[in-house]
Amino acid sequence: MAESEEFQGSTVHRTAGELVRFGVVGLAHNLLGYLVYLLITWLGTDPKIAVAILYPIGTAISFFANRRWTFEDKGHVGQSMSRYLAMHGFGYVLNILIIFLGVDLLQFPHQLVQLFAMGFLAVMFFLMSKFLVFNDR
Q1: Residues 6+ apart with CB under 8 A from 115
Q2: pTM score, whole prediction
């Protein structure tokens, strides 16, 4: 096998593993977060307030899981955490914007809008995590 084919094979294999691990972390974190979101909105909390409460908690848990397990990042924790927080800050604003557009303007059920937002953000976060946040190896 040629050296470039070996490199491509190992890169594809590594990325596939990262995607699976990212999916496991994300599914566990988002399933639990969505159930808590449904509970606290059912109890009367405004959807935007619910996201504001849950977002920092989920961000912290997923940072450490993704840094250690998903991407096996060996870089400086402060640098990757700064980039991760910036990514999630952007994601938070985008999440609120999606809720505003979907719920307040278009009148879709907040449960479906938040589910869409979570899927969209998951794809965006994987790509940003792989290429911008945990790329110090």
Answers
A1: 34
A2: 0.73
